[in-house]
Amino acid sequence: MDDAAGPLPAGKVLCHHDLMSRTSPAASALGRLRRLVFPPCGWRRAALYHWKRLIRLDGTAHSVAFGAAIGVFVSFTPLLGGRIFIAGAMAAGLRASVLAAVAGTQFGNPLVYPALFVACVEFGAWMLGVEGLGAADLAHLRSVLGPALLGIAVAGGLTSLAAYVLVLRGVRAYQRKRRARIGSARRLERTVPCATAEAKPI
After folding, report:
1. DSSP code per residue over the chain
2. Which of 43, 107, 174, 189 is most buried, judging by how many CB atoms fall within 10 Å of its CB?
3. How far, in Å, are 48, 156, 164 from residue 159 at the CA level?
């Protein structure tokens, strides 16, 4: 029996937005997690879907790009439970897109953050010329706090700068195409009545 959304067209592959709208409330948390980690449509299409949603957000290109950069930077911090609130508050205070900031926090999601954190610590230790994590114990972890903070700040800053440039270009390209489509539609609307009037018999 088909659900409320109707049957799927032949050959269609469910993607993230389809999953969000078609999944039964009774679906298990494990099943939702599995679909999040392994999107049925594949990582490439899922990433493309989220990219298109990001560049189509309302606001100027700078606002959206700045918000995304804020979210990416905050995603480097170990505050897993409060990133969305921190990024949203920073974006609101700096007059950037709050929705773009929230989206940007997904860069360092819990699935990849352990590896991201280790990479930041090693990067910071390399810049300071000190020992990295190595065989970590509690005493040693305290000694890598400085490298961790430095690595997070520098790596997060560089990555967020790259995100800003990338999103800025994407939003500007989308908005140019959108303005061109709107302009073409308006010119067509003005042309059609004129053509109809000329076609009327005298």
Report:
1. ---TT-PPPTT----HHHHHHHS-TTS-HHHHHHHHHS-TT-HHHHHHHHHHHHHTSSS-HHHHHHHHHHHHHHHTSS-TTTHHHHHHHHHHHTT--HHHHHHHGGGG-TTTHHHHHHHHHHHHHHHHTS--SSS--HHHHHHTHHHHHHHHHHHHHHHHHHHHHHHHHHHHHHHHHHHHHHHHHHHHHHHHHHHHHHHS--
2. 107
3. 19, 5, 9
- Answer whether 25's CB lies under 8 Å from 6's CB: no
Tokens coding 163: 């995100």
Per-residue model confidence as pLDDT tens digits over 114-152:
888 888 888 888 888 877 666 555 456 666 777 888 888
Q: What contacts 24+ positions apart, CB below 8 Å, involve 14-23? A: 14/40, 14/41, 15/39, 15/40, 15/41, 15/45, 15/46, 15/49, 16/41, 16/46, 16/49, 16/50, 17/49
The DSSP line for 36-66 is HHS-TT-HHHHHHHHHHHHHTSSS-HHHHHH
